[in-house]
Every structure is written in C-alpha cells, then in structure tokens.
Automatic annotation (TrEMBL):
Designated name of the protein: Uncharacterized protein
Domain WxL Interacting Protein host binding, chain residue ranges per copy: 164-294
Spans through the membrane: 307-329
InterPro entries documented for this protein: WxLIP_HBD, WxLIP_PGBD
Keyword Signal: yes
Domain WxL Interacting Protein peptidoglycan binding residues, every copy: 36-154
Keyword field: Membrane, Signal, Transmembrane, Transmembrane helix
Organism: Weissella cibaria
Lineage: Bacteria, Bacillati, Bacillota, Bacilli, Lactobacillales
Highest taxon of source: Bacteria
Signal sequence coordinates: 1-28
Amino acid sequence: MKIGKHFFGSVIGAGLVTVALSGGPVSAAATSNIGISPVYPDNQITANGIFDLKVQPGQAETLKLKIANLSNETQKLIVQTTTAYTNDAGTMAFDHVTLPKNKSRQVDFRRLVAKRDRKQVVTVPAGEITMVEMPIKVPGKAFDGIVVGGVLVKSDDQASPFAKKGVSVKNKFAYAMGVVLKESDQTAVPKLTMGKIQPKIVGNDIKIKTVYKNNKPAIISDMTLHAKITNRQTGQVMGKTADTGMSVAPNSTFNYANNWHGHKIKPGSYHYHATITAANGQHWQLDKNFKVGVAGSFVMNQHCNPWLSYVIIGILVLLLIIMIAVIIYKRLKREQEKRFARQLTKED
C-alpha cells in the first residue's frame, strides 16, 4: 500500500505514543522515517491515538497497526508485544519484552498473545505501508481494573550494515503503541507503598534507592514526589528530592533514586518521608526507617572518595613498618641480652 495523505492525517490526529530507547514516552507523529498508526476496532472506547478497548472475558481480538516507511530505503523491523512497567526514573514505559514476576499482576498483556505471534519480523518497502496484526485472547476469568501493554516497533539491528562494534547506528529507534484493556467502567484505585530502602552508587554519587510498589490494576498519572531523609538521632536533613510528571504502570515496582547531600554517608539509623500526589486527588504520606551498616558505609565512601583508599593503604603500610621495627627491635634486644649474659658467665 502506498503512503497517502490519509495516513499522515491519521498519524497526526492520533498523536502517537512513542518510546525512545532510553525508555521515556514522548508524543510524536513520525520520526526516523517510520510512522505508525492504529486501526481502531469497533470496541475502541475513544479515538485517542492508542488501542483503548472495552473487552469481554474470553473475547478474541486482533490489533491492527499500520507501519509506514517514509524513507527511500526498505526497512526491516521487529514488532513485539510488551507489558507496561515503570522504569527507575518513575515513568511508565513499554520497551522491555521480559519483566520480573509480580504477584499482584493478574494479567500479563504480552501473554495474551500466542507465543508464535509475540515477535514478528516485518519488511516495509520504501514509501509504502504495511499492516501488522497481533491476535490477542482475553482471559476467560474476569479481571479488575485495566491491563496495559504495548506493541513495540523497533529497528532490526542485525539487518543494518552499520551495526558493527564501535560504530554508531544513527537509525536505531523504537516506538510503542499503547494498549489499554478494560472490562468494566468501574475504575480501580491505585495503592502506592514502599519496600526496601538502601544506599547505592549512581554514577559518582551516593543515592538512596527506594522501592515503590503499585499493587493495583490502575495507572498513577501526573505524580509529584517530595521526599526527605533525616538522621534519626540528630534530626539533620541528609537529602531532599522533588520530582514531577511521574507515572506508574499498573501492578509494577520501581527502584527510585533519592538525593543524598554530600559524598559521605555514616553508619546509623535514618528516616525516609515522602509526600506524593497524583491526578484525581490521589495522595500518599509514606514513612519508613532504614539503617546503614559499617560495611555499606565503607563501600559507599570508598567509591565516592577514592583518596580514602590511599589514606587507608598508607596507614596500613605505616602500621606494617612499625610492626617490623618492633619485631627487629625486640630481636636485637634479645640478642644483646644474650651477649651480655654470656659475658657475665665468662667473668665468673
């Protein structure tokens, strides 16, 4: 199928949801010489640029996606289904094919597609449109809330003659068309909780990593976070973090990096407090204590302050020299005492 004006109109009208290789969703019409556009089925709820479908238990559905090659060369693409997750920056994304298991996730969107159809290799001639079909099967058992996933369209790196070690591949790209399934008009209420808190090295900085969990089949959108870390003994503020425009996928977990002021962290007991607000008036006040051990503190400080290694090595060398000197001194003293004793014996 040749590209016509109708395709550009549908793309611009759709406001495609695309996902860059870094994982963050952005809005775009068509870039990197590729355009994608959904073909809305009859059960589409709103023509909002994604597949937003009202489904029934056990229903069979076929997602149809138009892919346009806007370049002058044939494009070889990989099309895969994915399940929505939350990356560690606190943004809902669709660019991971496999995800860690989550006990709270009732339905994994990727698994609604037959295994043979989850990954397709598509060749799109220059200046033409190819239709891709992804059959899905809704579970027979009714599910609560929403199921969110995506159809990921990315460049086939192996097909590129430039995909060699040490060579930058400028035409490497990935887009994801979002898919939302719901069976009821009743909306699930998200629930945000905290898990483990521990210090980690991010780049050359100390960060306090906090595990956040949304164990409900609902999206948290337009989320704002204000977090503060204090020393439980002194009350001193050790770090503050503010973030806006965050989004959390249904039934997902992410490991968020909070700021820590300075390049040293002492062993001790600390308190983490977060005030979080989101769309529709949702809000949470979350608190948790955590401890930093001597070993963990040493590792963090050594990484962020490499000169400490030289100081420690210098101290150890100095101690070694002192020990050797003491051993030699004692040995010489014993020999001197023996010589003195032999002299006394001869005089007697």
